[in-house]
Amino acid sequence: MMEKNAKIYVAGHRGLVGSSILRALDRAGYKNVVYRTHKELDLTNFEAVKNFFDRERPEYVFLAAAKVGGIWANKTHKAEFIYENLQIQNSVIKNAYDYGVKKLLFLGSSCIYPRMCPQPIKEEYLLSGYLEETNDAYAIAKISGLMMCRAFRQQYGVDYISAMPTNLYGYNDNFDLESSHVLPALMRKIHDAKENNVPEVTVWGTGSPLREFLFVDDLADALVFLMNEYSGEEHVNVGTGTDVSIKELAQLICKVVGYKGKLVFDTSKPDGTPKKLLDVSKINSLGWKAAVSLEEGIRKTYEWYLQEYKK
Ligand code: GFB
Question: Is residue 310 part of a domain?
Fold first, then answer.
């Protein structure tokens, strides 16, 4: 268990995941949390990260900093995705080791698994086939981070663990239409269409791909839970165990937003992986389950979008 006064570093605290981890730690009574903005600390700079660890000496690290994006950003900015993520991981994981961090949690993504692997996806399917082409550079970086934690654990005996979340959404998400993931992109498009009385909304791809969506506050609870309860070499999937088609997702967002127009599908845009549903029996058997339904999570996110994002 992390002691309540332990010094905890959350890397990436302004992002979707990191900001949610801060809230979860606060709820759980952890008050000695350190973080830096990107401007204050460039995590791709090994020396800067070394100085930070030397000065702050955190005891626990949540590595939630990463360059992330949706299918289009991943497909068109592969160099940045592989370079920046490898640099961030190398800097943080190695310095955590050099400065005696007690425990580190690395965050991956469900796109690390082979494109056509059996569903639902068990942890053991990692590296059993070819990756999805639209996000292979990002996936290789994330697999390297996971492997680095495993290698450090094997060689040095340190307690570094990895969690693999499914597609995430929630407060502080990226709503930029080019670089975001599907859920915030569709929320923004559907909201704008409603506001401007536009009769139709364009959805990328065929609408048939299946995706599993986890509300980010559920993820953060799972991460604090894993930090306290799990200590193993194998990574742990974090998801809800159910998926929906992109068309069904779009229809659900229309319902929450109150939009009555038509959905049209732009098949010149990629579908990506046909199905990506995590097997969550491992984390469930450890004692954690997702609590927020997709409709409830979309409602909460839309309320946040109306109040906060629009500001
Ligand atoms: O969320 P998304 O960008 O990422 O797209 P992936 C999921 C599906 O939604 C794809 C479709 O089939 C998209 O074509 N889609 C429909 C849209 N309309 C839109 C839209 O307006 N914007 C976006 N972005 N998609 C990413 C990976 O894959 O998932 C990352 O590239 C990472 O590496 C992340 O793993 C979680 O689920 O396809």
Answer: no
